[in-house]
Amino acid sequence: MSAAIELRRVSKVYGSGATEVRALWEVDLSVEDGELVAVMGPSGSGKSTLLTIAGTLEDPTAGDVVVAGQGLAQLSRQDGARLRRRSIGYVFQNYNLLAGLTAVENVALPLELDGVRMKAARAAAMEVLDRLGLAERAARYPDELSGGESQRVAIARAVAGDRRLLLADEPTGALDSLSGEAVMRLLRRAGDDGVAGIVVTHDARMASWADRVVFLRDGRLVDQTAPAPGPESLLAPEASA
Ligand SMILES: Nc1ncnc2c1ncn2[C@@H]1O[C@H](COP(=O)(O)OP(=O)(O)OP(=O)(O)O)[C@@H](O)[C@H]1O
């Protein structure tokens, strides 16, 4: 196995002087291909900052981010942008589906923006929607979908194409527990295909789906544990060894 992403002594400081905030401080985190890591911690502890830096949407103040063996600081802006578009899928808290596009068009859009021809992009999008049990919803617009369906479309959009890393910020926050579990199951299933995942959650039940839980406090990574016994780990005795 190799690391899909590594954060090496990553710090992020906002502001300066009296208003300085150390959102992250010397965080080391490595996530292997196929591994799902849950990030927990109090409000303001740096969870969203960690995701935006892992997603290369923001640069760290200090430290290195290495995606699929490539140090981002060494890449040109253009190569960095390409790596971001091709390798990383994001699931945002509020789904961020475009209201004027159908479900399948939303899923296909990032591929089309990345130069895949429309027909091929739509076919790839349909395949993922089908895998997520949404084939019959493909032609619907976001306002014709339930919350759980919208969330699954957002996940389909994040996994379509050849992603290596999925980043999800509270993907189950707005969902009832059954839909939330379904979302976590999808993230796990992506892991079975070798895709790494980092998921921010406040919910210990959701975190129990992860291979590993890391805790942030005041921007520092304070602890790493195997999750409490949950639906998966009960079936995997080695997880408690
Ligand atoms: N753009 C910014 N400018 C200044 N400070 C920021 C900025 N973004 C985040 N911060 C600060 O950095 C710290 C970490 O914020 P972050 O959003 O990462 O926390 P979080 O753990 O995700 O919180 P929550 O659970 O409430 O979403 C907080 O003190 C926050 O106020």
TrEMBL record:
Keyword Ribosomal protein on entry: no
Gene3D superfamilies: P-loop containing nucleotide triphosphate hydrolases
Keyword check for Repressor: no
Residues annotated as domain ABC transporter: 5-241
GO molecular function: ATP binding; ATP hydrolysis activity; transmembrane transporter activity
Keyword terms: ATP-binding, Nucleotide-binding, Transport
One GO location term (cellular component): plasma membrane
CDD domains: ABC_MJ0796_LolCDE_FtsE
PANTHER family the record matches: ABC TRANSPORTER ABCH.1, IMPORT ATP-BINDING PROTEIN
Identification of the protein by name: Putative ABC transport system ATP-binding protein
Organism from which the protein derives: Pseudosporangium ferrugineum
